[in-house]
Automatic annotation (TrEMBL):
Superkingdom of the organism of origin: Bacteria
InterPro entries: 23S_rRNA_MeTrnsfrase_RlmA, Methyltransf_11, SAM-dependent_MTases_sf
Ranges where the Methyltransferase type domain occurs: 54-141
Species in which this protein is naturally found: Streptomyces griseoaurantiacus
GO biological process: methylation
Protein name: Class I SAM-dependent methyltransferase
Length: 256
């Protein structure tokens, strides 16, 4: 069987739906090492002990849905309408209320409403709001995108990134922001993880799905670089990049 042509791969990468955070389509086409701490497992353990939980920026709800047991009161927020619909369909049968809430808006919940707040890869962490909705003694548990994540791919298309981009998403800044909001940081870990893209369709789908890597990405705007990347992968093997992740867990003092 002949290998797909460049045009066929581009069309395939453009056709795959981008809603939610299900990355199963990439199997056999791209790989990414996973952080050693196992965020979904850690979240599931905390959910099993919680009384009231909030998952912020839940995407399509896939990570929250992976937990075997959920508290009786579990709520999720999401800002992108296609993901709100997807998360509602997935989580509604489990009794989870999905609230449409813009990423930069205040959380639409009362003070001290939750003893557990979780978030996987938030666009931005609103520490003051998280501290407000946590009960005294409550926990915020989050895996976040760290420094210089997938910069190899970003710079392939955009050229050298500005110096301030290299300083963004510093885990120590997250620690300082959590403390400024009155939370105690009890765990902070960071890892850099190998990624491989085995064909240009995987690159196209990834950049359509993870929109902050190459903002405003379209195949039409980057067709010459995509063709060169296709030829490079065909001749030399997978395109290698590295993702960056950090885990942060913070608690609201019990006396607050």
């Amino acid at each position: 069987m002949d290998a797909p042509t460049f045009e066929e791969l581009i069309a395939e990468g453009e056709a795959v739906p981008v809603e939610g955070w299900d990355f199963s389509w990439f199997e056999g086409r791209a790989t990414e090492a996973r952080p050693s701490w196992g965020y979904a497992r850690g979240m599931a353990r905390r959910l099993a002990r919680a009384e009231a939980a909030l998952d912020i920026q839940t995407g399509g709800g896939e990570v929250l849905h992976s937990a075997p047991a959920l508290p009786l009161l579990t709520v999720a927020t999401e800002g992108w309408p296609p993901n709100v619909a997807r998360a509602t369909a997935l989580l509604g049968p489990r009794g989870v209320a999905v609230v449409a809430s813009p990423e930069d808006a205040p959380l639409p919940f009362a003070d001290g409403a939750f003893d557990l707040v979780t978030s996987r890869h938030p666009v931005r962490t609103h520490w003051a709001e998280i501290a407000r909705v946590l009960r005294p003694g409550g926990t915020y548990y989050s895996q976040q995108v760290g420094q210089e994540s997938v910069f190899e791919l970003a710079e392939y298309f955009l050229g050298p990134l500005p110096e301030e981009a290299y300083r963004a998403r510093d885990p120590e800044e997250a620690r300082a922001a959590a403390r400024a909001a009155g939370l105690d940081v009890v765990d902070l870990r960071a890892e850099r993880l190998r990624m491989e893209f085995h064909d240009v369709a995987a690159v196209v789908h990834f950049l359509r799905k993870v929109i902050w890597i190459v903002p405003g990405f379209t195949t039409a705007d980057h067709l010459p670089r995509l063709r060169a990347l296709h030829e490079r992968i065909s001749a030399r093997g997978p395109f290698v990049a590295h993702s960056s992740r950090f885990l942060i867990e913070a608690r609201k003092p019990a006396h607050a």
